[in-house]
Amino acid sequence: MRSKFQALRTEKIPRGLRYMAGAALVFLHFPLLIVLLYAFTTERRTYQFPPPGLTTQWFGELLARVDFWNALGTSLQVALVATTLALLLGTLTAAALARSRFFGKESISLLFILPIAMPGIVTGIALRSGIRLFGIEFSYWTIVIGHATFCIVTVFNNVVARLRRTAYTQIEASMDLGATTFQTIRYVILPNIATALLAGGMLAFALSFDEVIVTTFTRGTEQTTLPIWMLAQLVRPRDRPVTNAAALVVIVITFIPILFAFRFTQDVSET
Amino acid sequence: MANAARSAPRALNIGQQLSRFFFLHPRLVLLLLLALPLGWLLALYVLPLGLLVIQSFYRVDDFSGVMVRELSFQTYGALFTPSNLEIILRSAVMAALVTFACALIAFPLAYYMARFAGKRTRSLLYLAVLLPLWSSYIVRVYSWKLILANEGVINWLFEALGLGGVRDALLNLPVIGGSSLSFSYLGMFFVFVYIWIPYMILPTYAALERVPRSLIEVSGDLGARPGYTFRKVILPLAFPGIVAGSIFTFSLTLGDYIIPTVIGNSSFFIGPVVNTLQGTTGNVPLAAAFTVVPIVIMGAYLLVARRLGAFDAL
C-alpha cells in the first residue's frame, strides 16, 4: 500500500519528534532486554543490576523442571483446541455477517467483541458462572471453552474483512458454472480466505497462550497453563533464577506465531 | 426419445439439491450459520453476564452468610460505603492517568510512523509495536519487578547519575510515593502504561495514516504554518483514533487484577477486590455489584467514545 504521506517524506522532521518516537521505542523494548539479560545472571537471590556474572546454567535447571514442561504442554494443547474452535465459530459468524443485512446485525457483531472488550475479570466471572450453569466440572476443557469464547472475535475480524474484499462475482460465477455450494466453498471461498484464517488463527493462538485472568476463573484445580505457572513462580523467591530463564523462554515462544502472522499479513499487503 | 429426455428436468444429485435449497432460502442459511456461534456466545457468556448483573441485586444474609435471592438495593448500599467508593475512585483515577500518559507517549511514535517513516521503516516499527503487544503479559509484568527492584536497574541508574535524592523525593511524595518504587502507585502506574501502550499506538497510528495528504498540502497552500496545520488539521483528525485507543487502555487498567497484586502496595483496586469477594470470602452479590461498576463505567465511556467518532477509527 502506498503511503499517503510519501511525497512529503523530504519534509523536515520536527526537532524532538525523532527523539520522542525513539524514546517510546526504547520504553517498549527495554523491559524485554532486561528479561533477556536476567535470564543469564549468576545472582541467585536478588535482582541485582548490573549482574555480577553471566551463566547459562539456569536453562539446564529449567530443562529438568517437569512442572514447567507440563504447564507448557497444557498451554499448547489449550491454545490449539481453543484456536480450532474459534476458527470454526469465527468463520461461521463471518460467513453469516459478511454480506447479509438484517435487523440487529450490528448488535450481534458487538456481542462477539464483548468478551474481549470487557475487563478480564468481568469476562472471567461471567464465563465461570456460565460454566457452572451447565453443571460442567472445571477442568482442562473449561479453560478451552473460555479461551475459545474470547478468541472468536480475532478470527471473525480477519475473515469478515477478507470476505468483504473478495469479489462476490467470483462466488456467483462459480455457482453459475454449476458448482454446488460445497464445491464453491472448497474451491473458491476457502482459497480466498486461507491466509485470513491463518492470521486470525495465529492471533487467537497467541491470545490463548498468553491468557491469565480468564484462565484463573475457568480452570480446574489441577490444570496449570504456562502463564498461571509463571504467576505462581512470582511468589517463589527461591526459584528466581529458573523463573528468569523461563520468562525468556516464554517470550521467545510467543514471538514465533507473531512473526509468522506478521509475515502472512504482509505477504497479502494487509494490516 | 432423446428430445424427451432433454426436456425433462435433469435429476439433481444431493449436493445440487442442497445448493438449490440454500440459494432459495438465504434466511435459513443465515440462521444455520449463526446458530452455533451465537448460541455458544449467548449461553456461555451473555446470559451469565446478565445473571451476574441480577445477582448484584441479591444480598447475603448477615447472620447465616447465605445468598438471599430477592431483588433489593441492599448490596448497592454496601457497595457505596466510603471505603468501597475509594477503591472505585482509585481505580478510575489510575485508569484515567494511565490513559493520558499512554496518549502522550504513543502520539509522537504514531505520528512519526504515519508521516515520516519510509515504507520499510514503517513496517519494522509496526512489528516493533506488535511484538510487545503480543508477547507474554505476565512476563512483561515480571520484567518490571526486575526493573523496579531496590537493587534493580532503575535505582542503579538513579545512583549512577547521582540522582538518588530525586528518587527519594519522589518516593516521599504523599499518595504516589511509597517505601520503594516497586511498592508505590508510581511504580504501578509505569507498569500499567507499559503494558497497555501498544493499544494506544495502533489506533492512533491508523487514524494518522488516514489523514489525506492533500488536506495537509492545502492547509499549507492557504498559508498555515506547520504548527497551525498540526493543531487545526492533523490533531482533530487523529483525535477519534486516540479516543479509540483510550477505550482499551482505560478498560484494561480498570479491570486488571494481576498488576495491583504483583506490583504495587497492598491498597485495593476493583480487580483484586472482586477476585477476593467471589473467591475466599464468598460475598457473590457484592462481587457482582463490584463488576457492575466497570461495566457501567465502560458503557458510559463507549457512548461518549461513539459520539467522538472513535468507532469509525477502530
Topology summary:
The complex is a heterodimer of chains A (271) and B (314).
Chain A: H1 17-38, H2 57-63, H3 66-97, H4 105-117, H5 120-133, H6 140-165, H7 168-176, H8 181-210, H9 213-218, H10 226-233, H11 240-267
Chain B: H1 2-7, H2 14-24, H3 26-55, E1 59-60, E2 67-68, H4 74-79, H5 82-115, H6 119-134, H7 137-148, H8 153-160, H9 164-172, H10 185-209, H11 213-221, H12 226-255, H13 259-262, H14 270-278, H15 284-307
Antiparallel strand pairs in B: 1-2
Tag the structure with descriptive keywords:
heterodimer; A: 271 residues; mainly alpha; MetI-like fold; 11 helices; 72% helix; 0% strand; B: 314 residues; two-stranded antiparallel ribbon; 15 helices; 74% helix; globular
Number of helical elements of chain B: 15
Structural class of chain A: mainly alpha
In N-to-C order, the SSE pattern of chain B is HHHEEHHHHHHHHHHHH
* Number of contiguous helices of chain A: 11
CATH architecture of the largest domain in chain B: Orthogonal Bundle
Distance between the termini of chain A: 10 Å
What is the rounded Rg of chain A? 23 Å
| Helical residues, percent of chain A | over 70%
Name the CATH superfamily assignment of the largest domain in chain B.
MetI-like
**Biggest sheet overview of chain A:** none
* Low-confidence sequence ranges of chain A: none
Choose one word for the global shape of chain A. Answer: globular
The most extensive contact between chains is: A-B, 93 and 97 residues
| SSE-based structural type of chain B | mainly alpha
Write the H/E string of chain A, N to C.
Answer: HHHHHHHHHHH
CATH superfamily of chain A: MetI-like
> Any idea what the shape of chain B is?
globular
CATH structural class of chain A: Mainly Alpha
